[in-house]
Amino acid sequence: MAKVNLSIVALGVMLLFFADTWAQNPRKRLAPPKSPKGQCCDDVRSLKVQVANLTSILEELSRKQETDLLKVVRQIMELDQQNRQQEARVTEAESKYSEINNRVEIMQLQTLQSATQTSSDALYDCASLYSKNYKISGEYKLPKDEFLGTPELSVFCDMDTNGGGWTVIQRRKIGLTSFKRDWKQYKGGFGSIRGDFWLGNDHIFRLTRQPSVLRIELEDWVGETRYAEYGFFTVSNELNSYKLFLANYSGNAGDSLRYHNNTNFSTFNKDNDKCVDHCAALRKGGYWYNCCTDSNLNGVFYRYGEHTKNTDGITWYGWHGPNYSLKKVEMKVRPVGFQP
Ligand SMILES: *[C@@H]1O[C@H](CO)[C@@H](O)[C@H](O)[C@H]1NC(C)=O
Ligand SMILES: *[C@@H]1O[C@H](CO)[C@@H](O)[C@H](O)[C@H]1NC(C)=O
Ligand SMILES: *[C@@H]1O[C@H](CO)[C@@H](O)[C@H](O)[C@H]1NC(C)=O
Ligand SMILES: *[C@@H]1O[C@H](CO)[C@@H](O)[C@H](O)[C@H]1NC(C)=O
Ligand SMILES: *[C@@H]1O[C@H](CO)[C@@H](O)[C@H](O)[C@H]1NC(C)=O
């Protein structure tokens, strides 16, 4: 529409030019013919008026387009905001529901425990809870155990995936919890057990003293999911810098933790990686950085729209490469040979 008008204006300007030169030149060189002169100037005047009119129409159009564009942008921003508010409401409702659910569960658990607890059948992970018939996914409180030397610990149990019995050790899904934390925080754990969290290297060490399977579940921004499973997974103690051992990959996400095998854990204030770069600072997380990554599950959470612009995001190179930050991640463990 605007383009058509623009060419009409151009045509108008050209006509004006020709009309003008045609009108002026004869005056200088030849004797001006009487009648055409009056007619010509009338033509020029009317052309000028038309050009002015077209120009004003054009201006109005571009003004209208600008306000339309602004309106669309504003609408998109409003939709985005509504979306976020809804998401927050759902999360809140979800956590309230599971809180009530869990209170009941924990009460049952405590009753059961005071009746049956001995050191040999102490509950120390989600797999042992599952075998005691706790088959609902959610938060459980593992009791303190003097004999095993374990403190009381809140855990999230996935009792549904592939037979259940999984103790979740890491989750990214909401994106409000920073994972750029120091050694001490990675040691003890941080975040919210129903939201984003790291269970803590000491706890992961304790859980994986029994031969364990690691399962990693990933989701991208169009809702597609992939997983990677390691048939053997263990983490050393703090004295050995929480060094990672892995074996026997299976899955459809790619083997992007293999590169981190036999590597110490690093945080921004404890650089244990295998190169001159300071990987934990560069990738903004705590992880078993080699030199530096083939995955970075504790990287920066980037929202939809900005999730392909940075190399320090939540990455899994085997699936989406180095510049795609995933929307959701869960890491979970259970004993090798677990039978649902
Ligand atoms: C300008 O154009 C519009 C429609 O093309 C017309 O209605 C209006 O009368 C014109 N104005 C002048 C001053 O020519
Ligand atoms: C890997 O799997 C093979 C075959 O099931 C098994 O023999 C081996 O012990 C496993 N390795 C580890 C470290 O668990
Ligand atoms: C890993 O940590 C151990 C002990 O904490 C240390 O002896 C070893 O040199 C470290 N390895 C690397 C590559 O930093
Ligand atoms: C990790 O390293 C160990 C040797 O320390 C090896 O046995 C194991 O197969 C490696 N895991 C993977 C996934 O390559
Ligand atoms: C990732 O982003 C960096 C810059 O941020 C760019 O140099 C690199 O080419 C990108 N890689 C891919 C595979 O898109």
From TrEMBL:
It comes from the Eukaryota. Residues 44-110 form a coiled coil. Keywords: Coiled coil, Disulfide bond, Glycoprotein, Secreted, Signal. It is found in: Secreted. Residues 117-337 form the Fibrinogen C-terminal domain. One of its GO terms (biological process) is blood coagulation. Its main location: secreted. Residues 1-23 form the signal peptide. SUPFAM superfamilies: Fibrinogen C-terminal domain-like (SSF56496). Pfam families: Fibrinogen_C. The keyword Amino-acid biosynthesis does not apply. The keyword Cell inner membrane does not apply. One of its GO terms (cellular component) is extracellular region. NCBIfam families: GGGWT_bact (NF040941). This is Fibrinogen C-terminal domain-containing protein. The gene is angptl7.
